[in-house]
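Anyone have tokens for 3-dehydroquinate synthase? Sequence:
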Amino acid sequence: MREIFENVCCSDVKIIVGEGSLSKLSELGDNNVAVIYSKQIDIGKVMYYLPNAYYIPINDGEEAKDLSNVINIIRELFNRNFDRGDYIVAVGGGTVTDVAGFVSSIYLRGINLVNVPTTLLGMVDAAIGGKNGINFNNIKNVIGTFYQPYMIISDISFLETLSLEELRKGLAEVIKYGLTLDKDLYDYLSLNNDKILNKDKESLEEIIYRSSLNKIRIVKEDEKELKGIRIVLNFGHTIGHAIEAGSKFKVSHGYAISVGMVCEAKMAEELGYAEEGVVEDVLWLVQLYGLPYDISQLNVNININEALKAIEMDKKHRGNLLLMPFPTRIGSWKKVEVPIETVKGFAEQCLK
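Reply: yep, here.
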């Protein structure tokens, strides 16, 4: 079990990674606790440590990230007299941490939040960083806040029953950190693919710990994306979000980001920002983990118009320019302003 402590702006954030870390829930004491959890998971492990909590099940998937869900949860908290000293514990994947984080940030202007991600994607990305969002008009995360959790518990015992497909979806985000921020992580992924895909506990703890460390350090430097640093966490996401929107969210986030990273690496290389060979390095690692690298592998029809509309609505645009993080070499990156029409042109090539 390993721990990370960081102060992000005005909040102390504690991340615990490893088997048995769920026991840290006992630190919540006698406060009122509401557990917002995915209907798809076995909540028994959490109930063991929080037998007196109030449990609120929600659906998984982008459809659950709706304002009506948020209002219903707030009504439940209000009716049970929750105050600012109490806790919300989010147990599940990215959908749950998004919804619970958003609720935590607006109820009484802020209530204590603990994230307990149960997927690899949640452990290395969604649960960390304080971004909370719900969808609007088929566009992801239009309504949202920045709100840091008090604690993030990544207990790898949850991954024991995780399917190989779900594991791969999370690995797309791990690969992102290796490509843009951490060459040592890239090398570790290159040498330990069999262990990781077979869910070796030490290997999983290593990649979750390194990913968590990479993300929280970037967030600490630029919590609200005002300095152009946190943008690195969006590598693969401009095209990836377009794929999600164009498929009406039938393509999972992890698979969309995997294809998005390949597309954006090609863009970086063709525009002259990436060293020759970066695309091959991206392709090689994505393929090593059995992730999709081309739109044809997603087996879903993509509405090009909806995808391009999502690019136009991308929150990283400044006038007619889109801010994008391009890998320059493995483990390094550069922020680049790209005309939106240029991005759309590359996207059309990738999505055909």
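The chain has a mean pLDDT of 94.
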